[in-house]
Amino acid sequence: MPNIEITEECRALIESAVEPPTGRRLPNGNWVIPVNEATWERLQQLRLQGETISDCIIRLMIVTLHKYGLQ
């Protein structure tokens, strides 16, 4: 199972929309979160050139929340 490193802001957004992701906090304030292979591959496909994983997740969540509305 691959791990991704995300920012505190990204983790907070995920937590506000879904549930707190499991993971561990790093000394620099970022988080290491395990994801399944399918999620890893999909994030790699959706990432824009030069975009971090956190930026990609935040962008996708904003688009999704805008499209389907806040719940």
Tell me about this structure:
This protein is α+β, with helices and mostly antiparallel strands and 71 residues long. It has one domain (3-68). Helices cover 51% and strands 14% of the residues. The chain is built from three helices and three strands. The chain has helices at 8-17, 37-46, 53-68, and strands at 3-6, 24-25, 31-34. Strands 1-3-2 form a three-stranded antiparallel sheet. Strand 2 (24-25) and strand 3 form a beta hairpin. Helix 1 runs parallel beside helix 3 (53-68). The longest helix has 16 residues, at 53-68. The mean pLDDT is 91.
Overview in brief:
The chain is an alpha+beta fold and 71 residues long.
Distance between the termini: 30 Å
Query: How large is the count of helical segments?
Result: 3
Instruction: List unreliable stretches of 5+ residues.
Output: none
Structural class: alpha+beta
Identify the overall geometry. globular
Strands side by side in the biggest sheet: 1-3-2
- Sequence of secondary-structure elements: EHEEHH
Give me the count of strands. Answer: 3
- Overall pLDDT confidence: 91
Query: How many individual domains?
Result: 1
Q: Assess the beta-strand content as a share of residues.
A: 5-15%
Q: What percentage of residues falls in helices of 4 or more residues?
A: 40-55%
What is the C-alpha radius of gyration, as a whole number of Å?
12 Å
Largest sheet: 3 strands, antiparallel
Task: List strands and helices in order, with pairings.
Elements: E1 3-6, H1 8-17, E2 24-25, E3 31-34, H2 37-46, H3 53-68
Antiparallel strand pairs: 1-3, 2-3
Helix pairs in contact: 1-3
